[in-house]
Amino acid sequence: MRVSGRLQNSNLSFEQKHPIILPKESRITGLIIQREHIRLLHAGPKLLLASLNQKYWLVNGIRQVKKITHKCFTCFRFKANAAKQLMGSLPRQRVTASRPFQAVGIDFAGPVQVKNSRIRRAVISKGYICVYVCFSTKAIHLELTSDLTTEIFLACFKRFISRRGMPSDVYCDNAATFRCAQSQSEELFKLNNSQDHRKQVCNFASQNCIKFHFTPSYSPVFAGLVEAGVKSIKYHLKRVIQKGLFTYEQLNTILNQIEAVVNSRPLLPVTSSSVTDFAYLTPGHFLIGAPLTSFPQKDLSETPDNRLKFWNLIEKVRQGFWKTWSKNYLNTLQSRPKWRDVLPNITVGTMVIIREPNNPPLNWSLGRIVFEVAAPNGKTYMRSLSGICPLPLQE
Q: How far apart are CA 207 and CA 157, in angstroms?
């Protein structure tokens, strides 16, 4: 069956004046579109439809063409979208009032160049920055390490505990996230993949009643708060050190100053009618009662207790911080900035493409879902790799 049309008097060929009508949702229509798509070297929908219209008239053509090209495995690799689901609820540690650094996330930044002395031709070595982020107050603690061995990491962790207290929950980034910069962070990769390292860390944690949580590979979304903290640290560090070389003591001093700056960043604006009459709430208010970059206050050590009631005032100020945190700060975490739609869960047996940051799309591996871990509300969030793209299987 051909189109009659109104082009009988044109100079077009017979096929163009009277193209063959192809029905929609037909197997033969799909095969013709596939053949033309491959002949045109995987052309896009508009070019493909224009070429088909030289000989065929497709009913609801653009929709049919897009449907077939979407199922092309070769094209899908270059425009594959990762699986999505409704954004989950925040963990209990993020929305429960607790002392600073009771629940922390740990990540490493670096390497950074460190010279062993202040002489002109000093030996240059690599150093790493261990970043600790408090889950409830967003306070940041920085430790400079000279190596990435298990002993150095545990010593760094002990220094953190001595200064900030014993945490109850620790969230660690998985080592595979460092493969994107393997040439510079090979030590990070080896450290976190070492079974002996994990065994020693877990033994230390069990002895001190600390619960460690390890995020899946290639899943920075599981540690978004920590990644944001690392980004803030790098922002200041790059602008301060630039191309300079510093000794271990100098770099450690710079990191302490950066720590004070990021812990003085505003969590949210606070009205002047609050109990402390400060301009904005910062992580520093939960650490020392004021921003770490604020000016020293007047010495009140000689003021009589009956006039000042110092400790009652401190307790009132502390309660005011947490009251502001509960009423105002938690409300800013209520909305979902992305992933607002409830989508079907990926079921066991689904064929997927595994996105690999270091490989081109044509070299991405195929996989099949063998099991799933469901969240308490029934939605599937956790997966072995964050870059999973379900394949558009042919009918």
A: 14
Distance between CA 90 and CA 96 in Å, rounded?
10
pLDDT digits (tens, 9 = 90+) for 40-83: 888 888 999 888 888 888 888 888 888 888 888 888 888 777 77
pLDDT tens digit string along 178-188?
Answer: 333 333 344 55
CATH code for the structural domain at 92-262: 3.30.420.10
In whole angstroms, what is the distance from residue 319 CA to residue 25 CA? Answer: 66
Beta bridge partners of 212: 170
Instruction: List, as own/partner pairs, every contact residues 152-159 make where C-beta atoms lie below 8 angstroms and the sequence separation is at least 24, other chains included.
Output: 153/191, 153/197, 153/201, 154/200, 154/201, 154/204, 156/130, 157/204
Expressed in percent and rounded to 5, the helix, strand and coil fractions of the chain are 40, 15, 40
Contacts of 292 (CB under 8 A, 6+ apart): 259, 260, 261, 263, 264, 282, 284
390: left (phi over 0), alpha (psi -120 to 50) or beta: beta
What angle, 0 to 180 degrees and rounded to 10, lies between the N-to-C axes of helices 27-39 and 61-70?
70
Instruction: Supply the pTM of this predicted model.
Output: 0.63
CB 261, CB 323: distance < 8 Å = no
Compute and round to an integer the Cα radius of gyration of the chain: 30
Q: Which amino acid is at 244?
A: G
Cβ neighbours around 133 below 10 Å, total: 27
Torsions phi, psi for 364 (to 5 deg): -65, 140
